[in-house]
Structures are given as structure tokens and as C-alpha cells.
Amino acid sequence: MYRPLFLAACLLGAGSSSPIHRLKRGTNILAEYDFIIAGGGTAGMVLANRLTEVPEFRVLVIEAGPEPTVVINYESPGGNQFLGGTAIDWNFYTTPQTHLDDRILFYRRGKAVGGSSTTNGLYYGRGTASVYDHWVELGNPGWGWDDLYPLAIKSTHFNPPIDDPDWDHSYTTWEPSAYSDGPLQIGYQGYVAPSCVGFIEACEIIDIPIVEELNAGNNTGVKQGTGNLDGRLRRSSAFDSYYQQAKSRPNLDVLHDSNVEKIVFDTTGKTPRATGLQFTDHLTGEFFVVSASKEVIISGGAFASPQLLIISGVGPQEPLDKFGIEPVKVNENVGQHLNDHHVFSVVALAQEDSTNSVMYANASTQEAAREQYYKDLTGHWTAPSGITNGFQRMSEQKLRDIGAGAVVDAGLLNQSHVEFLYEDAFYPGGPTFFGGGAVQTESQAYYRPKSSESYFSLTAQTCVALSRGNVTIKSTSMYDDPNINPNYYEHPADRAIGINAFKDLRKLLSHPKLQQFTIGPNNGEVLPGLENVPEDADDDTIFEFIKANTIPNWHASGTCQMLPEEDGGVVDPRLRVYGVDNLRVCDISIFPFLPDVNTVGPTYMVAEKCAEIFKEDWGSKSPTPAPAPAPAPGSGGSPPPSSQNPYPASSSSTPPSPSGTSYQNPTWEDIVAARQSDNP
């Protein structure tokens, strides 16, 4: 039986009295907070940290998942391959994808304090300045690169590579002024496979230059990839960084394992007003209503945020009518305009010592690598499957020649258009569903990996996907997964870019720097193989392979877009939900266009901006951030339209510090000693 609990007043939190709820799990929470955040994911934890810097702000975060520490592999680089389907994953599936022959795809999404930053592939990037300047052009003042870049600097701390003579530090360069002393840790992986270095050097064949920095406004080029890794090669998620820094503050309560079920509205006034949240404690089954004296903040991500809005009465007319939901605000844009990145790969058979995939061959090799990592921070478990990426920008003429002129027309010329990823494994190789409900595996009609063989994969992601999907509800319950339809390849430009990217993947594989590590004919290619896609294959044949092998890259966004309502928006530039008072959305769902990079870095930037907005609107200033360096070259903070990166490669692996001081790499002995002190 659900029952709201209203108990006696008690002095708690930031020196103020309020009624409390006593949870059977042994936790007390206030009956009223200044801000309540629905969702303790990546953006939610940033908000919780920054808002509670103001002692007068009382903040409650309600998160459906547990703390990520319930899963043993979540913090280690090598363990990131084994987080799908665990207790910290939502285990979503898409609807049948019309343009992928009705395939139903598994969709990873973090379900934990820290959200998808606890389960992602660890890559950290920020994207190209022009992407955010385009957001401004679409009607969002204050959201350009010059506004966001100082916040990215403020949020991050860079850890130089560990000084291990057995690890390859080629192309591990960085620009010190792009980082500061923020809570989020950025660094390089440990072990680097020889074929990974070969990938970097081979990118020249597809016009991707080697550069020194990708996080300062120009995301075109290739180098060793930066990851969310601390100085001891552990994952630095929003849980590990922002939450750990703030969790002891008396004005912050974080309630995990609790599902928000509905937004509570007061509809008696001229404009509906959000007054609180209704939720259930998963651990005890207790039902509660908690009030917000200032605002309710929705931070559930691209799927849960629109789902919660619709179930609460803010959304399109059709589902409100279908499920008998009383309308609070009809907005046809809620849950629409889903935008996502997707990937496919060409896979090569490789020499065993040239790749890391032998680690994944069987349970015994995995366990041995994991034990070595926890013993002395060495070995293959110090590397994720792949965070080394090359970003390609095409000219206007090239885009039009391949049939992707719509990218130019959409204003997306001056950014990267394709991301090429090196994967230290046979990828993709996980289970999925196909049409008809039969359980099959990716690429079933093609070559399947063998435990006795080693591989590397060259993967392509379209950075300017123009296809748009949607998220709709199945019922009035947040316990039912939403219908998720990314609608991959709906737009013909996505198809054109995918086909061209496949041709470039084969060019990469043919480069001597990669070819030297392969085994067998056709540059070692086993997927798709020339028997399936001949060298002279037409575009339709290539696309048949792409359709059978495309999977999500887990970057869904745009379902609560920050745009004028008449242009498809759900929130305004101050993140306020149209037509409702005291309700805002702060997460990846507000992105009007996807950045040309993996999305955790942009999500951190956007969340920092959200927190700044809240403090401004409620009369509090943020602590003064470190002085920001000059913006990336180019007018308005944007990079030049050419593929030239402002940080080209040089002979130095460590750029000089602008202050005149130098970074001191931790010694191997320091790192091992520190790790062993953590694990006595």
C-alpha cells in the first residue's frame, strides 16, 4: 500500500527546520528542499555539487539506480567492456529499426549514481567550437563555445601519463591551459597496443592529421585519446568526482535505488507550477511526496526525462489522450527529435602481440589481467577496448559529391563529420534481437570471433547524423521502459556518409602502418571480408553490410530540445520548460544538435552551465573559476574551416606550461605505492 509520510518537524540540513520523512532504510530526508533533482546521473551529480556550494541551498537528488560500486568492474579500464547488462545498466532495447531491416538493438544506458559516466567507454572529448556557436544561432544566447569552454576548463584536471618504460607514450600530448584543478580527472590509458599506434599513423591516408590537442575547440585530428581516468588509472565518473567531493555537505541528500514516478503540479493558478516529486524507495517499497520550494529539475537523460514529463502531463496530445493523462501543458515536441550517433566496423585478424584482444579471449585470461591490474597497476587491464579516435572533416565539395550536401545546408560544415575509432577487440560482438524476435548475434551472417585469435576493429561513427527519432511511453508507469526509436539512417545523408566511411575504413586497413600487424590476405580483413563486400562493390552492397552491423554508440540526445517552442523546443535558453513554472530540464536531452564527439564531455560542460544559470537566477554567484585562456583560433571562438588544428603535432610530448612551470610525471614507484595503500 502506497502511503505518504508526513512526520514531525526536526532541525536538519543547512540550519533550517522542516518536516522530515524517516525512511525504513534508516535514512531521514526533508519533506521540502529548495531544489529536487530527478536523476542522479552525469548532469545530475554536477548540478548537485555546484548548487550545494551555496550553503543556503538544500538539494535532494533521487536516483533510480544504486551506487556503481555494486559492480566490481566499473572503475577499471579493462572492465568497461563488461558493464552492459549489469545492475548499473538500464538494459534498454530499441523498437524495430525500419532502415536496418527491422533489427531491434540493445541500448546501454547507465543506471547508477553518476549515470552513463559510470558505464561508458571512458573517452573524454569536448567537440568543435562551431557546434556550440551553432546552438546560439538557433536561438540560445549564452551557449556558445566562449561561454562553455571556461566551464570545461574549470571542471577538469589533467593527469600526465604514468612513467612506465614498458608503455608506449607516443602521441600522448596535451595543452595544459585546457584544464585546471576541477573534480573531473582526465588522463591517458596505461598499456597501448602496437596496432593502436599504427592506427594513429595510418590516419594520414584519410586526411586526418596527427595533432597535440583535441579539447581546445578544434576536434579535427588524431592522437592518443584522453579518457575519464585518474592518476591511478581508475574511472573518474560523476560519482567518483563531483559526488565524492560534495557528499559530506549537510545541505545535500542523495537517495539512490529510488524511482521518481511523477512530477507534482499545482494547477490552480494561471500557469501550472511544479511543486515536487512523487517517488518510491526500491529498498523498502515506501512511497513519498517531497516538495521543492524553488524548483524541480529533471535530469533523467534522453529517455527518462521526456518519459517523466509525458507521464506527468507535459507532452504531445496523442499519448496524453491514449493513456488518460490529464494535460498540464500540451507540447508536441516532448520526446521528439531524438538524435544519436551510430557505429559499424571493419575487423582484421591480427598478430597476438599487436593487440589487446587476447585479454578478452576467455574467463581465465580476463581474470589474470584483472588480478594483475589490482596487484600493481600493470598489464592489459590498464587499457579500455579503445579510446583512440581520429576525427575527419570533409570539404563542402566532398560532402556534396558523396550525396551529403544536406549536412552543409544544416550549418554543420565547420566541424568533424566522421569519427574513426580504434577498438582493441572484435567489435561489435554482443547480442541483439532481429526482426521476428529471434535472439541472434551481431553480424551473424559474417565471420564470428574465435577465442584462439586476436583482432582489432576499425570503427566509424557519423558525427553529423541528420536522422531523427523519438521516445514515447508504453504506459503511465515509469517502471515500464519507454519506446525508443533512434530511427537510424532515416536521412539519406547519413547513408551517404556511412558508405563513404566504409570505404575509408578499408583505406585505413591498407596502410602499411596497420597492415604490418595483420594476418592473412586482404590486409587481414575478416569482417565483412571480400566474399561479402568485394573491392569493387557498389554502394547498395556496402550499405547492406552497414545495415546488418550498425549498433548504437549510446549518445542519444535532443528529446527535450533547447530551442524556441515553435522550432521544436521543450525548454528555453534558461532551461525552463515552456508553459510551466518552477520546472527545468538539465541533461543531454536539451542538446539541439549533437556535438561531433562522444557525449560525456559535452554533458559535463552543459551541466556546469546549467548550474551557473540556477545560481544567477536565484541570486548566488559561482566561485570564481580559473582564468580562461584565449579561445580557439577563428572568429567567435570557432576554429578555422580548414582541417588545420590549432595544436599540430610537434616533437615534444609535453607542451610547456604557460606559467613557466612544468608538469612532473608521477614515478612508477609512486603510483604502485599509492595503489597498494588503497588496497592493503
Automatic annotation (TrEMBL):
Residues 624-643 have a biased composition (Pro residues). Its cofactor is FAD. It comes from the Eukaryota. FAD binds at residues 260, 554-555. SUPFAM superfamilies: FAD-linked reductases, C-terminal domain, FAD/NAD(P)-binding domain. Residues 618-680 are annotated as: Disordered. Residues 644-663 have a biased composition (Low complexity). This is Versicolorin B synthase. GO terms for biological process: secondary metabolite biosynthetic process. Belongs to the GMC oxidoreductase family. Residues 301-315 form the Glucose-methanol-choline oxidoreductase N-terminal domain. GO terms for molecular function: flavin adenine dinucleotide binding; oxidoreductase activity, acting on CH-OH group of donors. InterPro entries: FAD/NAD-bd_sf (IPR036188), GMC_OxRdtase (IPR012132), GMC_OxRdtase_N (IPR000172), GMC_OxRtase_C (IPR007867). Keywords: FAD, Flavoprotein. It comes from Cyphellophora attinorum.
